[in-house]
């Protein structure tokens, strides 16, 4: 079965909502000191930024609450706009990792 993310055209998603590393919609966005935005779960496994090799310290990353809210609103709007039983069975939280 294809994932939800693969059924959505990546070009239709605002670039600000996409993790710089995983290329998926971020659930918990953070800003690194080098200026790149990653999903928190992705940054936990990084020692250096994959884009510029700058050292990443998780404690120094800035939590982006406003971007998280915008991501959630965007994603919820897309899920509720879809027809079919698959989307009516799952909450947004249960789709973490898929989108």
From TrEMBL:
* Every U-box domain range: 16-74
Q: Name one GO molecular function term.
A: ubiquitin-protein transferase activity
Under Pfam families, the record lists: U-box (PF04564)
Classification via InterPro entries: Ubox_domain, Znf_RING/FYVE/PHD
The positions making up the signal sequence are none
Biological process, per Gene Ontology = protein ubiquitination
Protein name (Swiss-Prot/TrEMBL): U-box domain-containing protein
Show the taxonomic lineage. unclassified sequences, metagenomes, ecological metagenomes
């Amino acid at each position: 079965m294809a994932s939800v993310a693969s059924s959505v055209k990546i070009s239709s998603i605002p670039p600000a909502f996409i993790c710089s590393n995983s290329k998926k919609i971020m659930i918990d966005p953070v800003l690194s000191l080098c200026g790149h935005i990653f999903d928190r779960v992705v940054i936990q496994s990084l020692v250096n930024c994959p884009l510029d090799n700058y050292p990443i310290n998780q404690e120094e990353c800035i939590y982006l609450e406003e971007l998280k809210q915008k991501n959630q609103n965007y994603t919820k709007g897309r899920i509720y706009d879809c027809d079919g039983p698959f989307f009516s069975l799952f909450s947004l939280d249960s789709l973490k990792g898929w989108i």
